[in-house]
Q: What sequence folds into this?
């Protein structure tokens, strides 16, 4: 039976698990991370993990939820929703998201390995996973659907519009294949401008 922990011990161990989980999930992913590795920095038995989280997936989701709120403020509230013109809002969103993926390795891992979130969704109760409904992706979907319904975006399904934007977000992964590194920022800026202008409705 796992030992009892004081409130201070629980807070310390929970913080260590979150810190260790962020490092391990970022570096090697959900599947390859073991409970032994997660618990090692805490100095307590592996079996005590379940005092703090129901599973590795629950820890992963907790990290994702914490990241999600912070990232949403930066890429949705301060970028996507900061402009009245949807074309400019989409531009700001793409630029802010690309920067987020550059500086935030955990979020980059979460966004580039959707199979891990699928594994989390299979393991956890639906109501727990539903907490991700306030994620940046959900906010973008709502925004695109609303702008599309108002006729501000091209006559394509919202999922198609979002898919086009995701294609732009993949470009940094192949930056070294685009030739002269000095030209990369200009290439990316022009691509974002072309895509967002193309997604906006054009008057006849």
A:
């Amino acid at each position: 039976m796992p030992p009892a922990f004081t409130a201070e011990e629980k807070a310390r161990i929970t913080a260590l698990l979150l810190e260790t989980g962020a490092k391990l999930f970022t570096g090697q992913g959900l599947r390859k991370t073991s409970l032994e590795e997660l618990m090692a920095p805490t100095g307590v038995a592996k079996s005590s993990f379940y005092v703090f989280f129901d599973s590795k997936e629950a820890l992963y989701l907790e990290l994702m939820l914490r990241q999600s709120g912070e990232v949403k403020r930066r890429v949705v509230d301060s970028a996507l929703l900061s402009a009245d013109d949807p074309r400019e809002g989409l531009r700001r969103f793409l630029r802010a998201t690309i920067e987020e993926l550059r500086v935030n390795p955990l979020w980059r891992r979460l966004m580039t390995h959707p199979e891990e979130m699928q594994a989390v969704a299979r393991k956890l109760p639906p109501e727990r996973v539903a907490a991700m409904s306030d994620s940046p992706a959900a906010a973008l979907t709502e925004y695109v659907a609303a702008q599309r319904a108002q006729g501000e975006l091209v006559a394509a399904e919202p999922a198609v519009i979002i898919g086009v934007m995701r294609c732009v977000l993949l470009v940094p992964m192949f930056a070294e294949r685009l030739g002269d590194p000095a030209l990369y920022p200009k290439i990316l800026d022009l691509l974002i401008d072309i895509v967002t202008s193309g997604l906006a409705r054009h008057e006849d």
User: Anything to note?
Assistant: The chain has a mean pLDDT of 90.
